Amino acid sequence: MxxxxxxxxxxxxxxxxxxxxxxxxxGVEIGATNFGTMGGSVGGAIRAGFAEDHEExxxxxxxxxxxxxxxxxxxxxxxxxxxxxxxxxxxHYRFFEWFFIGAExxxxxxxFTVYQPGVTPKRWAMAGFLGAGVHKDFDWVxxxxxxxxxxxxxxxxxxxxSPFRNQYFIRLTNPAQPxxxxxxxxIIYRLTFFFPIGK
Length: 199
Hints:
By secondary structure, the chain is mainly beta. Helix content is 11%, strand content 58%.
């Protein structure tokens, strides 16, 4: 937790110094959310940053994240729940009045740990996303809807699962064995509403 607070403090000082001519904005993100009879998940992030006042603009800032999930198996009577939380930073490039590309780096408490004899599981993990999507400015609110690929999870050891793995939704399957399941790609979607302040 000390690392997150230190990162947030340094980031806010740096951003304040660089953003004297940029417009401050607050973002409310809705993460991958789902509900069902067997469980669900809900969460998101609060973002604070700055954006250039141009049609083609850089936007950057920091974020705080919380995501809660639960499951309930009516057949076995087993149930459970957990949460991930942490913080990070983002950098987006908005262009053509309709699109954005971006990178995000997060340090979050990982609820998914694999216990190995003699090895202390790491409770905190990094996630690094590259993504793109639709960005539209409606004056009083700016909309971001995009897909993000976790490049850190793509190279991560399978014994150290990503904290975002329950949000993946694209699965690769073998056409010869469609019922055998398959591996999920580390891709998530995010919907964020940015509200300019003092524009």
